[in-house]
Design the sequence.
């Protein structure tokens, strides 16, 4: 997940200086979340169905890893978008912008 965060940060065109530690922190949190979801999914399947095949565990891992990568990409996109303009702060008739 840290490698994916580094790749995402490297290809972003507008990257502020703080995106590297932010994505590293988010990568760790998202990896922990994905692992917890995978373990919970396997436990629920075992409890309700009584057993699970090896390919079922593999597909749960693929699904949670895909969801984690999507979350990481969404956070990177949110970090690099421009800030919205302030409400009510348009240049007036006496502004020096003219």
Sequence:
């Amino acid at each position: 997940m840290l490698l994916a965060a580094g790749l995402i940060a490297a290809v972003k065109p507008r990257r502020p200086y703080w995106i590297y530690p932010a994505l590293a922190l988010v990568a760790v949190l998202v990896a922990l979340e994905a692992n917890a979801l995978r373990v919970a999914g396997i436990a629920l399947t075992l409890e309700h169905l009584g057993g699970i095949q090896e390919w079922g565990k593999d597909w749960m891992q693929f699904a949670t890893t895909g969801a984690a990568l999507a979350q990481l990409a969404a956070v990177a996109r949110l970090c690099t978008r421009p800030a919205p303009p302030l409400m009510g702060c348009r240049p007036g008739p006496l502004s020096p912008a003219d």
Summary: The chain has one domain: 2-79. The helical segments are 2-11, 19-49, 54-80.
